Amino acid sequence: MLNGVRQTSRHKGFTLVEALVAVGVLAVLASLAAPSFESTFVRFRVRVSAEGLMSGLQLARSEALRRNQAVRFTLDDGRGNWSVATLSPARTIQTSTGAAAAGVTLTTNTSQTAVVFLASGLVDTSAARIERIDLSTRVPGVNTWRVEVHGGGQVRMCDPAVTDANDRRKC
């Protein structure tokens, strides 16, 4: 039957030395991985900034079609702040502040800051306008993204570094 002797375990959990060794190993691994995390975060910020600008441009085009009147997309400054407004009467539809994250630089063709979408959804090509917006950063190894605005009203995001003609990211 039962012999009445109970066996108990003397040690449960970790000792202080074992815990300190585990924390030390984790700290070394984290310090090795930190540089790759930084470039990943910067790459993410550039991409999100480009997508924010593309979203604003697409909003301007869709509002021009919906309202059946010309709508202007304007970059307010080099930090990615933009606004979408009707021309006549001048009425702001939407604004966005800080589309470009810290460390992301925006450059447009010939320093243009606006593009007008006509009621047909096409771009008003009779005046100087934004044709492309390049988003870059000083961090090495992070791709530059470009947002292009074509005369037919198409807005697309591409990567100027891609050279393969069959790659959809090619500008």
Number of helices: 1
Main structural class? alpha+beta
Run of helices and strands: HEEEEEEEE
**What percent of residues adopt helix (DSSP H or I)?**
25-40%
- Strand tally: 8
Given the C-alpha coordinates, what overall shape results? Answer: elongated
Mean pLDDT over the full residue set? 84
Beta-strand fraction estimate: 15-25%
| Poorly predicted regions | none
**Gyration radius, to the nearest Å?**
27 Å
Characterize the biggest β-sheet.
4 strands, antiparallel
Q: Give me the side-by-side strand order of the main sheet.
A: 3-2-1-5
Family: Belongs to the GSP H family.
Domain General secretion pathway GspH: 50-153
Membrane topology: Single-pass membrane protein
Main location: membrane
Explain what you see.
It holds the Pfam family GspH. It is found in: Cell inner membrane. InterPro entries: N_methyl_site, Pilin-like, T2SS_GspH. The protein is of the alpha+beta class and 171 residues long. It has 1 helix and 8 strands, in the order αββββββββ. It has one helix spanning 16-67, and strands spanning 71-75, 82-86, 91-96, 105-108, 114-117, 132-136, 145-149, 155-158. The strands form 2 sheets. A 4-stranded antiparallel beta sheet has the order 3-2-1-5, covered by helices on one side. It has a 4-stranded antiparallel beta sheet with strand order 4-6-7-8, covered by helices on one side. β2 and β3 form a beta hairpin. The chain is elongated and about 95 Å long. The protein starts with 15 loop residues before the first helix and ends in a 13-residue tail after the last strand. The model has no long low-confidence stretch (mean pLDDT 84).
